[in-house]
Structures are given as C-alpha cells and as structure tokens.
Amino acid sequence: MKIYECLIDNNNDIVIGGDTLGGMIASSGKRCLWEQRKGGEVDTIVIHYMSAVNIDKDNPYDIAQLLKIFRDFGVSSHYLITRRGKVYRLVPEEAKAWHAGPSVMPAPDNRTGVNEFSIGIELMATESSGFTKSQYISLIHLCQDIEKRYGRKMTYVGHDQIAGERAVAMGLRKEPKTDPGPLFDWDFFTEKIKKS
Predict the structure, then answer these.
(1) Cα-to-chain-centroid distance, residue 196
(2) Which DSSP category does 112 fall into?
(3) What does the pLDDT read at residue 32?
(4) H or E element: which one contains 130?
C-alpha cells in the first residue's frame, strides 16, 4: 500500500487561495500542527470522518480545503483517506496529532487525553455519504500495516466513542462528537481486522 506524504507543517507547498498551506501555518506562528508525545506506547487507533461540505457543498472532498480546515481550527490527524482510497500521511506517527480533543476511552480503560497514545485516521465523508469500498480496503490495509510495525493488536474506537455524550457528561467537552457515526460498518471492519 502506498502512502503519500503531505505533512501539515510549514514546508507544505499545497496552494490554497494564493498562499501555501506551509506559509499559512508559518504565519500563525507554528512550525507544524502536531507536538511530541510525552511518553507511553501507542495502542489505539481513532477513526474519524471529515469534509468541507460547510465550505463548498459541491466539492466537499477537496484536499486543499480539508487541509485548510486543519490549519484554521488548529487540529490534525495522522492520516487522511480519500473517497478513492488514497492514503495521505499528515502527521508522523511518533508525534501527537490533535485529533481527539478532550476525550476518554470507553470503560473499563477510562484513560483520558486519548491523543497521547493514539493514531488518528480521517476518512473523507459527510454525515450522510457513508464510506466507499475503496476507503474500507485502504483503512484495513493501513491498520494492518500499523499493527505489524508496532508488533501488537490495536484498540479501535470512533471519535464518537471517546468524545461523545460520556465525555460531555464528565465535563471534558461542551459538544459531543458524532463521527464516524452510524454509517460506518464496524462489523465489517472488525471482522477484517481480526482476520489479519
């Protein structure tokens, strides 16, 4: 599986509205949209979805607009998978991406600050689009590759499972996250991962 480098740092030369993403990041006083992990082992993968549907409803999967969203909101994720299954690496795995926000693992784990020990994967999708076969195939291959490199099985959670209503009730956040939502086929994904 090929992974395309597209790090969201001040060297990124994708042009957005006449400026490069790297220039936009640098002008905000940052070098990159990640930080170093404080320690501990990566043992969790968080699945998300994102689109630019609120910016351009006719072209919700424009890569430049999605990267601008990361910059504008000061967030990031390790990987982004397009509708056709192309995989972009946005943040080095050894770094802490800002994808989970205030978060808590499901019981009985209950660890908070999920960014510290997780890898975030964004799928291009909207609330109603569902996910493509190509996305599932690439996601499964990427997760199998991560497990092989780390030499362990990962725990898989959706953003909604760690930053949803429970996180709100605990006072960790004001609004619940709902991605990847009910259209993500956890049964299919889990079955394929278990077979690897």
Answers:
(1) 22
(2) B
(3) 96
(4) none
